[in-house]
Amino acid sequence: QSVLTQPPSVSGAPGQRVSISCTGSSSNIGAGYDVHWYQQLPGRAPKLLIYGNRYRPSGVPDRISGSKSGTSASLAITGLQAEDEAGYYCQSYDNSLSGVIFGGGTKLTVL
Amino acid sequence: QVQLVESGGGVVQPGRSLRLSCAASGFTFSTYGMHWVRQAPGKGLEWVAIISYDGSNKYYADSVKGRFTISRDNSKNTLYLGVNSLRAEDTAVYYCARELLVGPNYYFDYWGQGTLVTVSS
User: Fold this and answer.
1) Which of A43, A84, B31, B44 pairs as cysteine with A105 (C-beta 3.0–4.6 A)?
2) Distance of CA A4 to CAs A109, B25, B34, Å?
3) According to the model, what pLDDT value does residue B64 have?
4) pLDDT in the model for residue B104
5) B57 CA to chain A: closest CA distance, Å?
6) How far is Cα B47 from Cα B92, in angstroms, rounded to an integer?
7) B11 interface with A at CB cutoff 8 Å
8) Distances from the Cα of B73 to the Cα of A93, B36, B65, B79, B112, angstroms
9) Mean pLDDT of all residues in chain B?
10) What pLDDT was estimated at residue B101?
11) Is B44 in Cβ contact with A102 (below 8 Å)?
12) B61 → chain A, closest CA residue
């Protein structure tokens, strides 16, 4: 059971918008710690997608965005493309566990 | 360009030990904190351990505390993970990752390709 809760799967048709939620608690997201997002293509290492709740590293398209409110965060992908089909993980820090925490991951399927 | 290359994985019997390595290049290794993150087959990511840039501070996940040891050799640009008393549940791909620290917030901007550790008799 992950400390950060994500839906196991989401799906959308090409061109559509999907959103992935990441729910935490008062000892992590709610305590003010940032949320970061990673994309993992099948058989590959994770890749940083969003850092500091809403910032995109160089090379990540602006159709990908992140937000945070209270004890939750969200990743949104608009203009869905086949290449977006992957696993997505949120990550933060928990002060009661004194460590880095990940969400359980969400599998995005492009229909 | 930044590169992280893990090695040292393999098939090992329960209770035995292994040492994983992560060779870094393309950046000033001695100025970055480094982490190990693992992923069991078909499962999500699990943070394992962190070591500060100079090796003076180390922290571990409760699931590996007392059995795993993180270390680094800045003269060789290499990160290590000593894994002892291995259990079936330690079977996973082990990734090394470079840390970026902004205030109290850690995240990982570069990851290695991973090395698979399989614990089986």
Assistant:
1) B44
2) 21, 32, 22
3) 95
4) 81
5) 13
6) 12
7) no
8) 26, 15, 21, 7, 17
9) 96
10) 86
11) yes
12) A99
Q: What is the DSSP letter of A97?
A: T
Averaged over A37-61, what is the pLDDT?
96
**What tens digit of pLDDT does each residue of B17-70 get?**
999 999 999 999 999 999 999 999 999 999 999 999 999 999 999 999 999 999
Q: What is the pairing mode between strands B3-7 and B18-25?
A: antiparallel
Nearest to A48 among B46, B102, B107 (CB): B107
Task: Find residue B3's DSSP bridge partners.
Answer: B25
Amino acid identity for residue A97 in this structure: L
Q: Which residue has the tokens 């640009």?
A: B77
How big is chain B, counted in residues? 121
Give the bridge partners for B45, in sequence order: B39
Q: What tokens appear for B83 in the block?
A: 């894994």
